Amino acid sequence: MFVTLKTKLITPLCLSLPILTLATFNINATTAFNATSAWQEVEHVLTKQYAYFDRLNNANTVLNQFKSKALKAKNKAEFNDISQQLMRTFSDPHLNLGPYDKNDFSVFPTGSDIRAIYQNDQFIVQDIKAGSAADKSTLTLGSAIIKMDNQPIKALVASLFGQGFETLSPQQIEYGVNVVLGGLRKQTRAITFTNNKGTQKTITLAASYDAINALNDGPTLSYRNLDGFGYIRFNNSLGNNQTTASFKKAINALKHTRALIIDLRNTPSGGNTGVAEPILGHFVSEKTPYQTYRTQTPNMAYHKAPMQTAFVTPTKPHYAKPFIVLAGRWTGSMGEGMTIGLDALGAQTVIGAPMADLLGGIKTVTLKQSDAWLEMAFERLYHVNGTFREDFEPHILVIPTDRDHQGADPALNKAIDYLQHSTSM
């Protein structure tokens, strides 16, 4: 299907030395980079296997724009940088192209601790991730971000997409600024902002991955009894097989509570169904559907594929009392799947902010022509009521969700207030 690359031959230096000539050939033979072949491969995989390709209204126009850039790439590194810009136009945190280098931004939302919105030509801090470097700094809600590492935010957002800022959609701008605020991979960040008093400040924050990586050395979840209400918070652990046993231990400890709060606000890295489904099983007494999906294949577009159903089976002990869910900007991928799953299984309500919108179930495809890989959604996921997972929003919106202006936990406080009223009736 793709153009085959030919080996570039090395002319022998001296025909009287055949052994030396052969050795020289083996050492110096290289495969020339062919931008046309590399582009054909990227375009084919993206259009035939990405389940959300049609989510971008002008996707084919965008492809043509990037094609003209990509065909001019002189080497694989330059080609892959252009391809990364193409992927970002879809505003999908699950659509990633690597390998990464020191000049790439941290993966979003794992490498993220500030949530900003674009409003009145300013980038306004809307939420700050609890326990993060930003949370421990002097950055405040409502601050206007001006620069990042001494570069104007608008210019950084535009460079992320390889386009002029004025050509970006509101969705791309919001996605872009929140990727940018995560900083470059494993590097400190200098953020210049104007606070609510109009004072300009510059702060230096630790690499955004540091706080999330520190969780690897601690418990997979935490739990406690809050005056008769059980509370369980996941510590970005939905990909850790030990989490299922930790959750069972928490359920046993909290089985006499009046109700349960399940906090999924710190799951930016997602996880897998092998961890999630046994946890969901504590809330059912029989085999029960928790989400539906369609699978995209090279031969069948997702919208033509049959709708399939994912089920959970009972896990002991069964928690039969009321439960509610907390979700927010750092609820990603499997965290989003668990949120809509718990809603389908009978959660009284979901409280928080719109989630991270990591689209679909993902796979990784090797791009041989450019020595790269593409992580993308090949399954499109749905709530059991037939709506797209990415369209789900908490029933009770609480923004900010992680920290309010007084430093308190607004979503958790709202959950306790909700349960106090609902369980007293």
Automatic annotation (TrEMBL):
InterPro entries: ClpP/crotonase-like_dom_sf (IPR029045), Tail-specific_protease (IPR005151). Residues 1-23 form the signal peptide. Residues 229-397 form the Tail specific protease domain. Keywords: Signal. The keyword Transport does not apply. This is S41 family peptidase. It comes from Pseudoalteromonas spongiae.
